[in-house]
Automatic annotation (TrEMBL):
SUPFAM superfamilies, sorted: Tetraspanin
Protein name: Tetraspanin-4
UniProt keyword Transferase, yes or no: no
Main location: membrane
Stored Gene3D superfamilies: Tetraspanin
InterPro entries reported for this sequence: Tetraspanin/Peripherin, Tetraspanin_EC2_sf
Transmembrane segments: 93-118, 138-158, 165-189, 285-310
């Protein structure tokens, strides 16, 4: 059955926006809904002001708490982003500073090595089987490697260049792994290394004082004078070299020309190999501290470079 338009109903049609003087929609005689181009809201009749005030206050509190939560979250995120950016900047500046120091140190080692190579020849060469293993060549090689790695790390950190940072990380990781491998092999085969080193050094004595081996001659003279020793395992090692009861003048207690031809009582008799080995054992703590500092520096370099590399990847991905 269709309801007549004259039947009473709690709802009334809302007026259109263009109609004038139309009555607003009323609901159960208590709330009014105003519809206009600018105002939409609930308004109570004069008899329900207390209920409206309570409703409006509760809703307002909810909105205030919601906006305060959003503001707090935004400020915390902004603070965290600023702290992360500050930490990353500190890492980048620290990496640049230390790699710059490494690069300068590499330049210094390279310069000293070149100077020794030009002025002293193969300085501090004790091994006959490895004549290239001289102090000058070692300084040149180590200085060149440090210069390359320091340059890669410094430029890569400044530019945040991913290829340079990755190259720095790989080279530094390879060097660290080689150092660990060398230490493991050294302690595993220490006895065999001792025997081989003594045999090789004795062969090197045969080249003492010969033409073209000034580096080996100078090295033995310095070692025997500074450590007050003579020969590899005994002063008699020189008897096979000269085919006579004779030692170099650097074995003498008081140096003078041809003092090695005099009474054996005026010679040093301690073996140089044991003296050098004892000196290393006495300074073992300092050597371990140096090794640990070097390893720690390399590990920090690996961590810093990978952190900056990952940040550069994220930035490139975000702006891609």
């Amino acid at each position: 059955m269709r309801r007549s338009s004259t039947d009473e109903t709690p709802y009334r049609r809302s007026p259109s926006l263009d109609s004038k003087g139309s009555a607003p929609l009323r609901y159960s005689g208590e709330y009014e809904y105003h519809s206009s181009p600018f105002v939409f809201g609930l308004r109570t009749t004069p008899g329900s002001k207390k209920a409206t005030a309570s409703y409006t206050t509760a809703q307002g509190r909810k909105y205030v708490v919601f906006y305060l939560d959003l503001s707090l979250i935004f400020l915390l995120e902004l603070r965290r982003c600023r702290m992360a950016e500050g930490c990353l900047r500190a890492l980048r500046y620290g990496m640049v500073f230390f790699n710059l120091l490494f690069w300068l140190g590499g330049c210094g080692l390279l310069g000293v090595g070149v100077w020794l190579s030009i002025t002293q020849g193969n300085f501090a060469t004790l091994s006959s089987s490895l004549p290239s293993l001289s102090a000058a060549n070692l300084l040149i090689a180590v200085g060149s490697i440090i210069m390359v790695i320091g340059c890669l790390g410094c430029v890569g950190a400044v530019k945040e260049n991913r290829p340079l940072l990755l190259s720095f990380f790989i080279l530094l990781l390879l060097i660290l792994l080689l150092e660990i491998l060398f230490m493991v092999l050294f302690f595993s085969y220490q006895d065999q290394i001792d025997l081989y080193a003594q045999s090789d050094l004795k062969k090197g004595l045969q080249l003492f004082g010969t033409e073209g081996n000034i580096g080996l001659t100078n090295a033995w003279s310095i070692v025997q004078t500074d450590f007050r020793c003579c020969g590899v395992t005994n002063h008699t090692d020189w008897f096979d070299v000269y085919n006579a009861t004779r030692v170099p003048d650097s074995c003498c207690l008081e140096f003078s020309d041809d003092c090695g031809l005099e009474n054996p009582g005026t010679w040093w008799t301690a073996p140089c190999y044991e003296r050098v080995k004892g000196w290393l054992q006495e300074n073992l703590v300092a050597l371990w501290i140096f090794a640990l500092c070097t390893a720690l520096t390399q590990i920090l370099g690996l961590v810093f470079s990978m952190t900056i590399f990952c940040h550069a990847v994220k930035v490139d991905t975000f702006y891609a």
